[in-house]
Amino acid sequence: MSDWNDKIIEEFRANEGKVGGPFEGAPLLLLHTVGARSGQNRVNPMMYQAVEGGYAVFASKGGAPTNPDWYHNLLANPRARAEIGTGEVDVVARVAEGDERERIWSAQKAAYPGFADYESKTTRQIPVVILQPA
Questions:
Q1: pLDDT tens per residue across span 16-59
Q2: How far apart are CA 33 and CA 127, in angstroms?
Q3: DSSP three-state, residue 28
Q4: Short-list 29, 45, 7, CA closest to 91
Q5: How would DSSP label each residue in 74-123?
Q6: Tell me, what's the pLDDT at 23?
Q7: pLDDT at residue 110 is higher than 80
């Protein structure tokens, strides 16, 4: 997975935030977090949805039974950075709850049906995380 992410990150940076393959045409950002246990800087490419007050990202992990590491990193240290296009923005993360989560999650599944597939593969509720500019 790391090698796959490294290739997407390289392509993202070489093409002003655009990539091909399964992410072609999709809104993509690079999320910089600090490892909850290691304290090391981490970078993860992921799709996002522009929402009022920031960006929503989805801890889907392809429908795996556990949340992705970046989600745990944000819970431990909600201050992060996002590369979007050719820019960077410092953000503070918070987990969306209730109606807010449902509205954003439903819109994501409608726009990108793969997310509904991820949801069907797991029993956990996939977290929706709001990245608000700091």
A1: 999 998 889 999 999 999 999 999 999 999 999 999 999 999 99
A2: 17
A3: strand
A4: 29
A5: HHH--EEEEEETTEEEEEEEEE--HHHHHHHHHHHHHH-THHHHHHHT-S
A6: 87
A7: yes
Global model pTM greater than 0.70: yes
| pLDDT over 90 (residue 120) | yes
| Amino acid in the structure at residue 17 | G
* pLDDT at res. 54: 97
Pairing of strands 41-51, 28-34: antiparallel
Query: Could you give the C-alpha distances from 79 to 22, 41, 69, 124, in angstroms and in order?
Result: 28, 12, 15, 25
With beta carbons less than 8 A apart as the criterion, state whether 36 and 77 touch: yes
What Å distances lie between residue 16 and 10, 13, 19, 63, 86, CA to CA? 10, 6, 9, 29, 5
Strands 128-133 and 28-34: unpaired
